[in-house]
Amino acid sequence: MLGPGKADLLEGIREAGSIAAAGRAMSMSYKRAWSLVEEMNAAFGEPLVSSSRGGTRGGGAHLTKTGEAVLSHYRKLEQITRAAGEEQIGAIEDLLGDMSVNE
């Protein structure tokens, strides 16, 4: 229902005021971004994103009150998880290969 990519998309929509712009910033097609928004809106009791079509007024999108709350709770959960798993995350990072080889 919600993971790091969807949370990043919500954050992008909040910052850009647009589903298309948030998707572009993540190298994602508008169709994919819109599909993810529809999935999130359907999964929760209330929509997370509200949007209006373009036209003379330009349209746009914004997070609803529920969307803001879900994003806030998710980011807090990430912080808690990172803090609790710091030792294990470090151990995994120590086992990673040289990432510069792929550049």
Automatic annotation (TrEMBL):
Domain HTH lysR-type: 11-68
Name the record gives this protein: LysR family transcriptional regulator
InterPro entries: LysR_HTH_N (IPR000847), Molybdate_resp_trans_reg (IPR051815), WH-like_DNA-bd_sf (IPR036388), WH_DNA-bd_sf (IPR036390)
Pfam families attached to this UniProt entry: HTH_1 (PF00126)
